[in-house]
Write a structure and sequence with these properties.
Chain A: Keywords: ATP-binding, Nucleotide-binding, Transport. The complex is a heterodimer of chains A (about 325) and B (about 350). Chain A is of the alpha/beta class and about 325 residues long. Chain A has one domain: P-loop containing nucleotide triphosphate hydrolases (Rossmann fold, 3-Layer(aba) Sandwich). Chain A contains eleven helices and twelve strands. The radius of gyration of chain A is 21 Å and the shape is globular. By secondary structure, chain B is of the alpha/beta class. In chain B, about 30% of the residues lie in helices and about 20% in strands. In chain B, strands 7-8-9-3-10-11-13-12 form an eight-stranded mixed beta sheet, with helices on both faces. In chain B, strands 1, 2, 4, 5 and 6 form a five-stranded antiparallel beta sheet that branches. In chain B, strand 8, helix 8 and strand 9 form a beta-alpha-beta unit. In chain B, helix 4 packs across helix 5, helix 4 runs parallel beside helix 7 and helix 5 crosses helix 7. The two termini of chain B are about 35 Å apart. Classes of the chains: A alpha/beta (about 325), B alpha/beta (about 350). At the A-B interface, helix 6, helix 7, helix 8, helix 9 and helix 10 of A face helix 7, helix 8, helix 9, helix 10 and helix 11 of B.
């Protein structure tokens, strides 16, 4: 394997939101990870754990509260003017909700070509139209679809339009924010196959955010597990599933339903009681301590740091 | 064989739209035994939710249940019931859990009051007693601090708790039949596992039958006794859970099983998909509805709907491949029993 070259480096990134009564929501609290060129980093966690906020802050969509995010060595949050425009061409987002993320008053061609227009990637109208047709074809739609509106399409087709829009400006990096959660199982497989194929053809780098662990394992080279604003485990995807070390990762994996009645009826689940706690002014110590079956006094006192327990395997737990 | 609680016979439901008549459900028959769990599995738009709504009497204009359809609950045809009888049936005998708990709960009413309302409407309890029982129900579905939670509004609940609150509402009058329409689809895996466990536990305690409607075969494996696979308004395969997972007979079931992401697949290996889209039910095809997407399609498939072939033990599939004249085709894969485990 070639020397790994970092594309996006996130260091001690923090994102706090003010809440009612002077409290603070610590949505992302001291998160660090690196995404290397050409790889897919999966990010998993329950709803409300801050994975989308983390991705969006790292992309410069939200202003940060602390730390930094470096894209190709430059601080995303300090880019201005032409540099910022160039960054927005190189890094794109595919959104979760294919219904809310497409403007209902624009035709598909205008939705897809918006980035092309902004970045001046087409010389003339004919070239722009040509590019739109090419993109539609690439994502498995056809050129008759160009003059229609978003409401005329099914969920899977809309998600394809969202993908075409992201690819229109030849990006290097795409953040896929739960691109398949709103879709049927058979359609999910189609979209994932499409993303994998496009990555292979164009050498793209993905940050793939999802809560469906089986799908994440399939698409990712490495996976980061997030819990309540912090990373609890980060390693290669095969290793994470073979040998999860953090108790939260273990519980998350054991909750995946298996399409096999005999296994389902006999296996022991690690049950997680209750819901994810509130990120408003979280107590000191490990954030998972309240739901963990192995909590000790130290967990409630000290916040565990993310450390490398074996090469390439990072865990934040006192007990490992 | 247990006693039949619900029998659906040749159910046909159409929606009258500007474009014409959309035949959402095209002759569906199945039976639910007392205390068992039956799962109906299929893609969006296959008619599974319309089937569920028919059982609850929730089909409204422009929808129409076609003459000749029969839904027998304990032997009585509910489609012939009068308005008063409907009120006694709905909620007391049969209750429904919807997919989207946030839109199904009243945002302006305290959760405890919504549950108590069900009890009051059905004359099961007076005001004070109903409020007490509502708290009891919330405790039963595993909501911590039920006294305090009963005084809160749905928006103060998390997704999993809302789903629990809705289950509590459904259970208020001890129904014998519970219809769950995609109850876990909007939830995280961990919460999904909790809700499925809760449903299993409540079924053991209360002995209610459950009709579980979902597109996720993974969810079904741990809870269903029988499974019906629906496609474009018809049941294409039915059987016990073990039969369907280990010896599936219909190409659509094969495709569905293959599309489920499994943990034992190699990284980035291409996933099996079902190419194409289901047929337009404005003008449903004369032949097998799956034939345009089926890799085993034969000329006869396009012309005539295949009959159900019986494999014994209630396992049936509607596919011409099982006709004695058809070429022998093996299932493209065998679902290994040891596969997929962690």
């Amino acid at each position: 394997m070639k020397e790994k070259e970092p594309l996006l480096e996130v260091r001690h990134l923090k994102k706090y939101f003010p809440a009612a009564g002077g409290a603070t929501v610590k949505a992302v609290d001291d998160v660090s990870f690196t995404i290397y060129k050409g790889e897919t980093l999966g990010m998993v966690g329950e709803s409300g754990c801050g994975k989308t906020t983390c991705g969006r802050t790292a992309m410069g969509v939200y202003p940060k509260s602390g730390g930094e995010a470096l894209f190709d060595g430059r601080d995303v949050h300090k880019l201005r003017g032409a540099d910022k425009l160039a960054f927005s061409r190189r890094a794109q987002i595919i959104f979760q909700d294919p219904y809310a993320s497409l403007n209902p008053r624009m035709t598909v061609a205008d939705i897809i070509a918006e980035g092309i227009d902004i970045h001046g990637l087409a010389q003339n109208h004919a070239q722009r139209t040509e590019r739109v047709y090419e993109l539609l074809n690439m994502v498995g739609l056809n050129k008759e679809h160009a003059n229609r509106f978003a409401h005329e399409f099914s969920g899977g087709q809309r998600q394809r339009i969202g993908i075409a829009r992201a690819f229109a400006v030849n990006p290097d990096f795409i953040m896929c924010d739960e691109p398949i959660s709103a879709l049927d199982v058979s359609i999910q497989a189609q979209i994932v196959n499409l993303l994998v194929k496009l990555q292979r053809e164009m050498g793209l780098t993905y940050l793939f955010i999802a809560h469906d662990l089986a799908m994440v394992k399939h698409i990712s080279d490495r996976i980061a597990v997030m819990y309540l604003g912090t990373l609890v485990e980060l390693t290669e995807s095969e290793r994470l599933y073979d040998k999860p070390l953090h108790p939260y990762t273990q519980a998350l994996l054991s909750a995946i339903p298996i399409p096999d009645p005999e296994i389902e009826l006999t296996r022991e689940r690690i049950r997680l009681e209750g819901d994810i706690p509130s990120p408003v002014d979280p107590p000191p110590g490990c954030r998972f301590a309240g739901r963990c079956s192995r909590t000790c006094a130290r967990c409630r006192r000290e916040t565990p740091a993310l450390r490398e327990v074996e090469p390439g395997h990072f865990v934040a737990c006192h007990l490992v | 064989m247990g006693e039949k609680l619900l029998q659906v016979q040749d159910l046909r439901v159409s929606y009258h739209t500007y474009a014409g008549e959309v035949q959402s459900v095209r002759g569906v028959s199945f039976a639910v035994e007392k205390g068992e769990t039956l799962a109906i599995v299929g893609e969006s738009g296959c008619g599974k939710s319309v089937t569920a709504k028919s059982i609850m009497g929730l089909i409204q204009d422009p929808g129409e249940i076609k003459p000749g359809s029969r839904i027998l609950y304990e032997g009585r045809d509910i489609l012939k019931m009068k308005k008063r009888e409907w009120r006694a049936y709905r909620g007391e005998q049969c209750a429904m859990i919807f997919q989207d708990a946030l839109t199904s709960l009243d945002p302006t009413m305290r959760v405890g009051k919504q549950i108590a309302e069900t009890l009051r409407v059905h004359g099961r309890a007076g005001k004070a007693e109903a409020a007490e029982k509502a708290v009891e129900l919330l405790r039963r579905v595993g909501i911590p601090n039920p006294e305090r939670r009963a005084q809160e509004f749905p928006h103060q609940f998390s997704g999993g708790m809302r789903q629990r609150a809705m289950i509590a509402t459904a259970l208020a009058c001890d129904p014998k039949l519970l219809i769950a329409d995609e109850p876990t689809t909007a939830l995280d895996v961990t919460i999904q596992a909790q809700i499925i466990d809760l449903m299993k536990q409540l079924q053991r305690e209360l002995g209610a039958a459950i009709v579980l409607i979902t597109h996720d075969l993974g969810v079904v494996a741990g809870i269903a006794k029988h499974i019906c696979v629906m496609y474009s308004g018809k049941i294409v395969e039915r059987g016990t859970s073990a039969e369907l997972f280990y010896h599936p007979r219909h190409p659509y079931t094969w495709a569905l099983l293959k599309a489920v992401p499994r943990l034992d697949l190699k990284n980035k290996q291409e996933l099996a998909t079902i190419e194409g889209t289901p047929p337009d039910l404005l003008s449903p095809p004369a032949g097998c509805p799956f034939c345009t997407r089926c890799r085993y399609c034969m000329p006869v498939c396009k012309e005539e709907m295949p009959p159900d072939t019986d494999f014994g033990g209630g396992h049936q599939a509607a596919c011409w491949l099982h006709d004695p004249r058809a070429p022998k085709v093996d299932a493209p894969f065998v679902v290994r029993k040891e596969a997929g485990g962690i």
